[in-house]
Amino acid sequence: MDVNWQPGACLAPVQGLAQAMAQGAGDLPEGNLRLAAFLAGQVIPVLLSARMIVGHAGRAHDAREREAHPPLDGGVASERDQDLREGVEQALRWFDDLHATIAESGHTDAAACHLLLAADLRIRAGGIEVGIEAGTLPAAPGKLRHTPTGSRALRELLQGDRELGAPGTAEECVVTPRAPGAVGAGGILRAAERRYESALAACTAARAPHGRAAALLRLAHVHRIQGRGDTCRTRLASALDAAYEAKDGACAALLQVHQVLDLIDADSGEGTEAAVAKAVAVWGRTVGSTSWVHGLSWLVRNRADSWYAEGYARSGDRAEAFARLLSEDRAPSSAGPSAVAVPTTDTAVQARHHGAALVLIDLEQREHLARIRHDDQRGALDLTRCLGVVRTAKAFHTQATELGDPEVAAAARARLELAVHVGELVVRETGTGTETGTGTETGTETGTGTETGTGTGTWIADPMRDVLAGLRSDLAACPAQESLFHSRRAREAGLGDEADRLAQQALDRARSIPDDVLRCHVRCTALTDLGDRARARAEAERMESRLPALQAAALWVRLGDPARARRCLPHVGDAVENSWQLLSLRAETAGGEGTPTREAGEYALRGLAAYEEQRNRLARDTLRASFADDPVAARLHHVAVLARLASGEEDAPAVAFGQADRVRTGFLGAVRALDAAAADPAARAAVRHWLATEVRWAAEFEDHVAALRAERGGAPGAATAVPERSPSPSWPSDPSLPPTSHPTTAVIRRRVDTAALRLGEAEAVVRRRAPSALAAAERDVVPDPAAVAGALPDGAVLLAYHLFDDALIGWAMTRDTLRCEPLRGRPGGRALTHQVVGAARRFRDGCADPLHEGHGQDDAALLAAWLLEPFAEVLDTARRVVVVPPAALALLPFHTLPWDGDVLGAHRPVSYLPAAGLLPRLRERGDPRPWRDLDALLVGAPATDARHRLPELPGTAAEIAEIARLLPRTTVLTGARAGRAEVLATAPGHEVVHLATHGVIDELAPNRSRLPLAGDDALDLADLLTAAHAPRLLVLSACDTGRGRATAGGDVLGLTRAALVTGARNAIVSLWPVRDDLGALVMTRMYRHLAGDGQLTEGGTVDVGTALHLAQQEVRALGHAAREAEYGRLTRRTGGASGTADGRRSWAAGPRDSSPARLGPALDDRHPYHWAPFIHVGV
């Protein structure tokens, strides 16, 4: 009996009836003794088993309903539910067959209760159509209508359960979100409340504490749903007293768990979980039931899932930690289960953090496989573990597909192959007389395993064959998907011909995909990328009737046919993962073929409100950033911008400007978190540590995703011309953990669990010291264009852009004017985004290559025509330009684009901002003090261990020494002193932080980016957040420090973002590899202008943008010989070596990264490679 006993099958009413019978009967006659034995020995165990069977079947049925999106032709296979129907019917017959024995006893109350419970079983069967007549709840016999206990109380409880929803809802603490103003919701709850009050009165009059506890538990749940928290807590406390009075440990444990869940929901009572879990576990191991405790753990995990689905990651993580404590599962600490809430797989999946989800899912599969291999030595087949291997392989493939990474997709192929092998083993074993069950031995309470026997039949093998068919289809799709992902990577790199070759390869490989729907999606995507929308539409039209309505609508939107998509929407129903997904489709189809209408804009704004509400529930910056990397949300922003512009209202350009900038301001949530703790140094330190620990958590997963990429090379035939990424650094993500070349599953689990535990602990400290920091992101607002304009310096023009699909929109803002210029691509052709991004990447790569003749002048002319010429009138008179690029153009050096016979940055400073909304904030924090009066930390020329094979950087030593001469209040760390501990201890409090070293950057893993220091040390993103305390100037004088990963949410994850989160007012970063000697020339000249008598701003101090501009133009004007001569003078003045032994600076010295050095002098002394890698981020 204990095997099946869990919440949702609670028998408090039956127990109360038995107690009342015993109290009122005195010495029971022999017949009643037999009845009591029958109830205890057969009725209750069968009822528990039947409820378990019906419950599992109901959940399986609901899951199939959610997944089975009906195709447009209306065909839905029904045979898949046959096994569920047969199982439910058998369970109902088992319980029905007991009625005759009860009726023979002559105890009418017991017979009535049996009928009530039988009806309740049919209600629990829900949507599963059974062959046994369902009927309704029977009326109690007339002579029992006035009985205060027995069937009357049970009838009221069951009827109340029916009013409330699915039976077991109250006991399982199920809180289903109701739409605001849902029809009848209040009346239903009031009806249930009346039933429970009636049952409570009956049980109170009969002095039946079991029944009182059951009724009070249900009343508390009604109040929980109504949002009456105080009343709910009062009812639960009364129920707990009744349970203790009845000596019902199971009910008391359930009520204590409910109390903890309510505390989690209210975001209070942290720490209560551990005490309650310990008490419940002790009860379960001694006088209680371990099965019931495992059921409580399952109940808590279900509640965690509901919180995750609604975006409440913090509540979900606390519930998951509580569930681990209850079940004593493996926890993120070798010391045993922890009560600290840590990010889980569900958190990662719901937040679209694909890296974390991939690693955690992969670990789960590895652990299932290890258990299978262990059990295989005993000749046993562990069905649960086998299903786990299959489930995790499918989940891994889903995450890899959403990530769009070709190497990870190749790793998914290996896991699908393994899952197919395991699934075939299950089919083979279950079809040969081996009975696979849920007990390792007969009579055991928990675990999974196999028993040898007969009669298993096809109830395992047939569903597994269906699953295997899906896995084989996914496996067949992998080669085409890998080619498609390689194609997109090549296109982003500006390699159009190679991208087209790979897209055609994907199209050819898609022919081998057996699943028609999946094949259609892959082929349509490849054809669209090739610019052949006519063939893509023909493909979609052939398959439209086979596609689920939601997929068909989304496909037609992607193919540029909103009218066809609109016809699919009425068939979608409720099969939508989130509300903004459907609202996005409605928004994109409301405008027809032309400009979005006001209705489209209203749909888009409603979708954005729902999306942002859920995003803001993710208190962690890392999760908010990954959640924002959502193409659906990006489309909502896009439609909202277009609808604003099309409104024709006088302020339409300004409102559209604010809407476009809104997508770029997500990183300000982390900035506001620091603001929330500004008044308390300890609280601010806690928030900094929390943000840094978040980055380390994300970097830990990026380390392991890099290992997944390295498992198998790129797909056969993949591009070889795609630029190589920076080599993976050998430093671990967490400096306290040793590097591991080939970590075992146990080591990986320990590392990710340790990172998660540290993040949970850091967040717990913030919750105590600065709770408002966790809600800082909820204060997101649309940027105010008037405030942005007011913050612009005199004579400055701000250029902001919105780029999506076939639309490029630009704004030119001055203090007094705002001009908007939209540009649309060719209808039906290749997306304008592909053209602009490809040209930008090719132009940037040309600037980064000193041997590149012309450095992409054709692309430069196109980019200038797209981005600058529409605003020629304001640019010609601008004394300064501030560029706010879309994330996809974050690497484009606007200051080197051709303009007026030269380049844009030749005669005016060009500064950059990730979001226009940041401008007023930076201007408010102005500091008029001269630069020579500021404390500066200068770090350079670190003595990196030779094992890392990074070349020495004599230029950085000269750079640091010269800056120290110019700024008298400096602390210098070079050579062996330039270690991580020294930098972290010294940096806080310095208003200028200058770091000159190598840069190790990975766009695919931005949190792993770092600046190598002395020995094995390195300064990573997390360290930057800890070390830099709102400096006035933060300089990252290394290679590629401005690179990062652009997201669909408008963010660019990397060192620049981290610099702004620290509160830095000005940052200097690089867009490509920096030559050591030329970097020293530009940097030292910049500081000469800052410290000397250069051009002044209104505040009387030299501004950073102007100082960098002057330095760059001066170095640009120097020829090769002049540069060498100046560098020689610089190194001699600072006491350093200029290069090789003969005293000449060798061109083979190499850049400040770990890529191969570029040899030979450039063909053009004025090439941007020499003078333009650095940009100013700020005002």
UniProtKB/TrEMBL annotation:
Biased composition annotated in UniProt, kind: Low complexity: 431-449
Residue stretches of biased makeup (Pro residues): 729-741
Domain of life (superkingdom): Bacteria
Short name of any one Pfam family annotated for the protein: CHAT
Disordered: annotated span: 59-83, 431-458, 713-746, 1129-1162
Coiled-coil segments: none
InterPro entries: CHAT_dom (IPR024983)
Residues annotated as domain CHAT: 859-1178
Biased composition (Basic and acidic residues): 59-70
Protein's name according to its UniProt entry: CHAT domain-containing protein
Lineage of producing organism: Bacteria, Bacillati, Actinomycetota, Actinomycetes, Kitasatosporales
